[in-house]
Every structure is written in structure tokens, then in C-alpha cells.
Amino acid sequence: MTVVLRRVNRVLLALVGLLLVLVGGGVLAAALDLAVPTWWPWSGPADVLLTAADRQRWRDEGWWWPVVIAVLALIVLLALWWLLAQFRRARLAEVAVDSGDGEEAVLRGRALEGVIEADAAAQEGVARARISLTGRRHTPRARVALLLEPYASPGDALDTLGSRALAHARTSTGLSALPTEARLRAVKHRAKRVT
After folding, report:
1. CA distance 112 to 116
2. How far is C-alpha 123 from the geometric centre of its chain's CA atoms?
């Protein structure tokens, strides 16, 4: 899935870039009074991009300005969404596992996440665990979010996570290291009354 999105992103960027270069180059060539094709709308430095008649054609229509503002707002929102999508960390689709015979096996990232999640959630004092793998298939990184019970010790939970769930993941995949970022939160609970 991430490979497809990456390809779509690259194709989209290439098309937008090509379009901007062609239009910008054509306008610059016309402004510098260079030779431009006869079909090009601007042929010299005296030409304007929009004539006075073009600028004032729809001014008296009541629907014109709301449509222009809505289209521009939509373009800005799509551009912001695209920009934010570039910084989003994609989950790792697969992890390369050394099979011991010189070949390489592939393990689905979601499967490994599920196993680590189950292992971490089974430990004492953990109410829920969420794992996401990022990075590259040969050097994955783990992001762990543990929701701890009110009585749980954060230090013990981290020690058990490292020595149990993450150690099992490293040994089963043959990884020498699995850098991990862990975030701990406590379950919201009501205070107990002392009588």
C-alpha cells in the first residue's frame, strides 16, 4: 500500500512540476519576446494574462465570487492535506527475516505488530498495548504505546517489555537491534474512598 502511495505521489509531483515549468516557461518566453508557438495565448511582452473584459465578465453574477472562493479554499485544503501526508510516518509493510540458509524470508509487518502487541498486553499491569513498526524492512523501528493499570509500575512495565516482548521479536526475526520508542499512560480511574 505504501509503495503504491509513494508512486502516486511521485507521479503527481512530476505532473504538477512539468505543468508549472511548461506554463511558467511559456509566459517567461513571451515576456522576453522570444519565439513562442502561434497557438500560445500570450505572444509578446505587451500581452496581459487576463484582459479587462476577462476580468470583469462574471463580476455582476451573484454566484461567481462564492464559487471562486470555494474552489480556492478547496485547493488550499488539498495542498495542506498533501503536505501533511508527506510527514506522516508510514507503517512498515514487511520485515526481512534471515532464514539461516543465506536466503531471506519476508514477514508481514502487521503480523509482527500483532505478536508484539499480544505479548506486551499479556504482561502484568498492562491494560492495552499498541505497536506500530516504521523504518525500513532490514532496520525496523517500533513505536509502543502502553496503557497501564493504576497499580502498575512504569519501570517494571518497561523492563518487562524490553526483556520479553521486544526480545522475543528480535530473536524470532533475527534482528540485532529493534530501536523502540515507548509511551506510557495510566488508565483513567476514579479515586477510591478511604473510610
Report:
1. 6
2. 31
* Closest-CA residue to 161 (of 113, 194, 134, 129): 129
Residues of the chain with CATH 3.30.70.1350: 94-186
User: Per-residue DSSP letters for 116-168?
Assistant: HHHHHHTSTTEEEEEEEEEE-SSSEEEEEEEEE-TT--HHHHHHHIIIIIHHH
CATH number 3.30.70.1350 is the correct assignment for the domain at 94-186: yes
pLDDT at position 49 over 60: yes
Confidence of residue 60 (pLDDT cuts 50, 70, 90): confident
The yes-or-no verdict on residue 24 having pLDDT over 70 is: yes
Q: What percentage of the chain has pLDDT greater than the value 90? A: 16
* pLDDT for 2 beyond 70: no
* Burial state string for 151-188 with b = 16 or more CB within 10 A and e = fewer than 16: ebeeeebeebbeeebbeebeeebebeebebebebeeee
